[in-house]
Every structure is written in C-alpha cells, then in structure tokens.
Amino acid sequence: MNKERPSSASQPKEEAFSSTQLLISPVNSLGRAGRVPQFLKTANLLLIILGAIWGAFALVKEQYALFLADVILVAVGLTSYYFLRSKRLLVSLHWLLLSLLIWVVGVAYFISGSGVNHNGAVHYWLIVYIVGIHFVLFGAALILQTSYVAIAILAFILIEYDLVSLDPKYGFPSHDTLLSHGLTLGLVLIAIAVLMRRYIQELGQAEKRAQIATIRSNELLNSVLPPSVVQKVQREGTTYTQTAENCTILFADIVGFTPMSERLTAPELVSLLNRIFSRFDQLALKHGVEKIKTIGDGYLVVSGIPEEVSDHAHRIINLAQDMLVAIKEFDGLSIRIGINTGTVIAGIIGQTRIAFDLWGSAVNVASRMESHGIDGRIQLTQNTYALIKRDYDFDPP
C-alpha cells in the first residue's frame, strides 16, 4: 500500500495581521469582527436620522445655532458613511469617534450648555458613545478602547457638574429645558436600544451558527470514527488507543477491478465503487461490526473492537456471506474475502484527515487470507475456524 505524502496545505501559513486587524480583528461576514462594519453603518444611519430629528426640533424653536450644530452632526455621519462605503474602515471608525467627542464638547460649551446650571442635555450622547465603543474596539485595541472611554467619561463628568465653566452663547431657553432634556434622553435611549438590538441579534445568529457547526462536526467525526471513540475523545481529550485480544478481522477485495477501471471513466469508476461500498456499509451496520476503511478497491472491517462482543467471529462470517450475495447485484463483479481472529491494536492517527486504524499480526494475516483466496469464496484461518466450526459448513483449502 502506497503511503500518501503529506500535503503542504495541511500546514497553512500564518496570516499576517494588517493594521486594521490589529485594531479591530479580521473583518469578515461572521462572528464578532463582522459587527464592526455593521455597527458603523447602523451608527452612521442613527446619527443622520436622529440628528435630523433634533435639528428639526431646533429649527421649530428657532434655535438656529443649535440647528447648525445638528447639520454638522449629520455631516459627520454622512462623511463616516462615505469612508465606510469606500472600504476605509479605520478612517470611518476614528473619524466618527473623534468627531463625536469634539462635537459634544463644542456644542455643550458654545451652544446648548448642560449640567445642573444650564439648559441643554447634549452630553447625554456620550452615553451612546461609551456603549457603542465596546462593539467596535476589542482585542488588541484594549488600550485604545480604554482611552476613548476614559475621555468620554471625563467629558461627561466635567459637563454634567460644571467642573469647567461653560459659556453657552446661544443657550437653550430656560422654559424649554424639560422638553429639550426629554427629547435628547428619548433619542439617546432609542439609539442605545437599536445598537443593543443589533448586537443581541448578532449574538443569537453566532450562537445558532456555532450550534450548526457543532452538529456538523459531530456528524463528520461519527462518519470517520466509531461513536464510542468519539465520545471518549470528546470527554477525556486524550489520544485514543485500545488493545483487544479477541477480534475478528475481514478483508475483502473486488476481483478484476483494476482492468475494469481502465475501461471506465473517472465518474463511472467512483460511482461504481461508491455504490458497492455503500452496500457493504449497510451490511456492516446490520451485523454490528465496525468498518475501518477502504483501501482502493479493498474493504476492511473488524468485530470485537472498540466494543467487545463474544460473537465477533459469527458476526464477521454472517457479514461475509451477505457480501458475497450483495456483490452479485453488480454485473460481472466478484470478491475475495479473507478472515482471521486474534489480538488487535486500535487507535487514532494523524492530525489532518484523522483515521481510526488497526495494527497487529492478526490484521496482516487476514490480509494474506484475502490475497491468497479464491474468487467468490471466504477463506479463514484456523483461529477463526476453531470458534465457528460447529455452526457453518466448510471446504478444505
């Protein structure tokens, strides 16, 4: 049997991190990193829409300076959105974060005022700012995230408690204080609710994708490894090995398949093998034996490992008889079958394309029984014969 050379693809090169990845992690359509462009898009749209609403309110109240400030806010959102559409993610992100800080402080100082001695409430927007930062800056950007949050909190405290003297030259009328605070707080809560809703939806989708991936992973593992082995490895996290003294091994080989393969096209060849081995798989499942692998046009099964059974030889013989009948469903084909009983070592090998495999002289002897056998017949060793000689009819070799 030829040994496959390890593929170079099995050892992928480590991807280099770009400046974007260092700040916000690789951007893709799934998971946490996928939230970055989605968050920026949502934040920009919220900025534009809520800024327009607040601007309309200022225009109705004939607060033209505040209206101009809201026009600037909408312009900030449009510019950030333009950078985002132009695939300049970092520029869009930092433009938005820096511009909002400057805008809030500037509007609080020159236009609306804030805190306990003034009438505005513009610094409430810093709450949205602080909440939003945690959705786009994480991982390697911890220092940057902390800096933005610290500045925003400091600005909020300074404005709220007038720790820096504000000079709202175009202050909001005192008789509209309740209305302005209520509108601002309402818009802030709407913005936070929308951002959190998007975040929760993304988490729900990520959880669903993780569940689907886990199910598919388990299905894949169960298709290449015995279920009991999968459970043991998942539970204990160790490399699986097992030795069993009483196992019966079956090798089967399709007679004349190599010459036939020269007459078939590749799709016809693969389709034929798939139909034959799928039929054998059904029989292996029926008789409760463990399929190990196919080797070209050969088929290897075992009984007695990983689960010990007392009738391992009988199961294999019954399977072999059914295989002889099943191969007749495929015109012009026959098989040789070799069987042996003895001690077997089993285990999982490989890091890529892992396989559950068997070793030991008992396995080699079963292979020799097949290769030296007769078409359409079952050839077995004295070890197996001693276990089942009273239950079946035999011909001498």
Description of the molecule:
With 397 residues, the protein is α+β, with helices and mostly antiparallel strands. The protein folds into two domains: 19-212, no CATH class; 228-388, Nucleotide cyclase, GGDEF domain (Alpha-Beta Plaits), CATH 3.30.70. It contains 13 helices and six strands. Strands 1, 2, 3, 4, 5 and 6 form a six-stranded mixed sheet that branches. Helix 2 runs antiparallel to helix 3 (64-85) and helix 4 (89-112) packs parallel to helix 6. The longest helix has 48 residues, at 177-224. It starts with 18 loop residues before the first helix and ends in a 9-residue tail after the last helix. Mean pLDDT is 80; it is low at 1-31.
Strand proportion, as a percent range, falls in: 5-15%
- The tally of strands reads 6
Report the average pLDDT across residues: 80
Question: Could you list the spans in which at least 5 consecutive residues all have pLDDT below 50?
Answer: 1-31
Number of helices: 13
The structural domain count equals 2
Largest sheet: 6 strands, mixed
List the helices and strands and how they pair.
Elements: H1 19-24, H2 35-60, H3 64-85, H4 89-112, H5 125-136, H6 142-160, H7 177-224, H8 227-236, E1 241-255, H9 257-261, H10 266-287, E2 290-295, E3 298-303, H11 312-326, E4 334-349, E5 355-359, H12 361-371, E6 378-380, H13 382-388
Parallel strand pairs: 4-6
Antiparallel strand pairs: 1-3, 1-4, 2-3, 4-5
Helix pairs in contact: 2-3, 2-7, 3-4, 4-5, 4-6, 5-6, 5-7, 10-11
